[in-house]
């Protein structure tokens, strides 16, 4: 859209002394003639833009305007670029790459750009190509309002076909999720990407209904799936790291040189039991209650498979 391009040109000129019309045309994917028309529009709006002819010339904005009206500093842009770099590792779409390149081009190349004090690295995540392909397909389906058909395995292991209006992609705890409106259930649902066996983007489009992104699980009128239970755990230093990274709010106190007492909220369900099993011998349940008994029964079922 023209208004977005005009704003983009102003932001670019606020960060760079001079930018050639050719570079702008390439960056915004329009012709040089369009860029010059945009410059005329901005000048008519009293934006103090000037042009310098010649091989070393270009388009600039008056320094006084930069001092008074600056929108983003180089440090601001560097922080945004760090975030986009992380996003590109997770969602390698063409649009994300274009946006990242545009933001990089806004930095002043006449001097070394400032180094960011933070960086994001998702390179060690086990993101398989097949899963990435599904994420990108859903990203496009969301943008173009195409229905999708999911062959989906739920928590109980039941596989069904779900015709869904896709609305939002969420990356949380090393996993991708799709939030959308399931036509069979006539309600919003959250689907874990790794449980999608097959994904089809349909030709049929839909008119978007009101949707508000919420925290995980995240959709209005969503009820808790499992009964949550407060569990007291004795953990060592290795398990403590996992507990701190997994839970937002916990009560944890050091008992001795090597052990900590942690109170956490876990689902009284296989999902909670599996989490404890990941910690192996580094954790021990302290309170003897229903959760404890159910966890022991779960361990017995596992043991019976190997006897």
Shape: elongated
Question: What low-confidence regions span 5 or more consecutive residues with pLDDT below 50?
Answer: 217-224
Look at the structure and give the CATH class of the largest domain: Mainly Beta
Give me the count of strands.
11
In sequence order, what are the helices and strands, one letter per element? HHHEEHHHHEEEEEEHEEHEH
- CATH fold type of the largest domain: SH3 type barrels
Task: State Rg.
Answer: 26 Å
**Quick check: average pLDDT?**
81
* Helix percentage range: 25-40%
Query: Which structural class fits the helix and strand makeup?
Result: alpha+beta
List the main descriptive attributes of the protein structure presented here.
307 residues; alpha+beta; Arc Repressor Mutant, subunit A; SH3 type barrels; Alpha-Beta Plaits; 3 domains; four-stranded antiparallel β-sheet; 10 helices; elongated; Transcriptional regulator; WCX_dom; WYL_dom; PafC-like; transcription regulation
Short note summarizing the structure:
The protein is built from ten helices and eleven strands.
Task: Write structural notes for this entry.
It is built from 10 helices and 11 strands. The protein is 40% helix and 26% strand. The chain is elongated, with a radius of gyration of 26 Å. Strand 4 and strand 5 form a beta hairpin. The protein folds into 3 domains: 2-69, Winged helix-like DNA-binding domain superfamily/Winged helix DNA-binding domain (Arc Repressor Mutant, subunit A), CATH 1.10.10; 129-205, SH3 type barrels (Roll), CATH 2.30.30; 228-304, Alpha-Beta Plaits (2-Layer Sandwich). Helix 2 crosses helix 3. It comes from Listeria welshimeri.
């Amino acid at each position: 859209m023209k208004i977005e391009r005009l704003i983009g040109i102003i932001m670019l000129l606020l960060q760079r002394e001079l930018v050639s019309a050719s570079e702008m045309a390439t960056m915004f994917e329009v012709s040089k003639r369009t860029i010059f028309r945009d410059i005329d529009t901005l000048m008519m709006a009293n934006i103090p833009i000037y042009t310098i002819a010649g091989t070393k010339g270009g388009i600039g904005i008056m320094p006084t305007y930069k001092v008074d009206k600056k929108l983003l500093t180089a440090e601001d842009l560097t922080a945004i670029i760090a975030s986009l770099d992380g996003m590109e590792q997770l969602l390698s779409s063409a649009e994300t790459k274009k946006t990242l390149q545009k933001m990089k081009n806004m930095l002043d190349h006449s001097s070394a750009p400032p180094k960011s004090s933070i960086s994001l690295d998702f390179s060690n995540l086990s993101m398989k190509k097949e899963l990435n392909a599904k994420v990108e397909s859903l990203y496009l389906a969301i943008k173009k309002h195409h229905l999708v058909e999911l062959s989906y395995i739920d928590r109980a292991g039941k596989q069904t076909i779900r015709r869904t209006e896709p609305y939002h992609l969420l990356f949380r705890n090393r996993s991708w999720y799709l939030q959308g409106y399931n036509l069979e259930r006539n309600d919003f649902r959250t689907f874990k990407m790794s449980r999608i066996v097959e994904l089809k983007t349909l030709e049929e489009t839909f008119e978007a209904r009101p949707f508000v992104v919420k925290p995980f699980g995240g959709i209005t009128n969503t009820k808790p799936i499992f009964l949550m239970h407060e569990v007291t755990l004795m953990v060592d230093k290795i398990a403590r790291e996992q507990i701190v990274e997994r839970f937002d709010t916990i009560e944890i106190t050091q008992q001795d040189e090597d052990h900590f007492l942690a109170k956490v909220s876990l689902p009284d369900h296989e999902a909670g039991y599996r989490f404890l099993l990941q910690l192996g011998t580094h954790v021990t349940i302290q309170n003897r209650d229903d959760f404890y008994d159910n966890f022991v029964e779960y361990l017995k079922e596992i043991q019976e498979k190997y006897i």
